[in-house]
Predict the 3D structure of the following.
Amino acid sequence: MSTSVRVSVIPIKTYVTSLIGTEFNKEAINDKCFPITTQQAGTWEYNFFKIKHTEEHFSVREIISEIKKDGWQPAKIGHLLEFAKWYVNQEQKKGICVIALGSKVKYSGIPFSPVFNYSINKKCTPPETHSEINIGLHDLYRDSRSKQKILMVKKLTA
């Protein structure tokens, strides 16, 4: 899957509130920890680096190195939020867990990256599909489930 979207430099709270449709008050996701900078502005091509399930623990540095091999870079918070906004407006959606490794914050010495989760519960009553959107933090260094996707970006225009 490859697509492109335009990132704007606006406050995170504005992005997320428009995405989930309600007031957003997660202390850990804020402009101080994860600023959306002018370097993130512009039109970007998006793709995924899929973590393959293995018995061995992988290195985040190795993942970032692999991403950079073909001119891609790990997505930052602005890329992730714009991707999330684009994704929830698509007709055919599946549950997805997408991580922006280009942005990090440390809590108690443990690095966390922002994550976008979109889950679907088709077992709800009435039978229409119920979905849930979540923007949060993810400890990739400790949790390496195979369903995670690392968002990677390539700049198209300023």
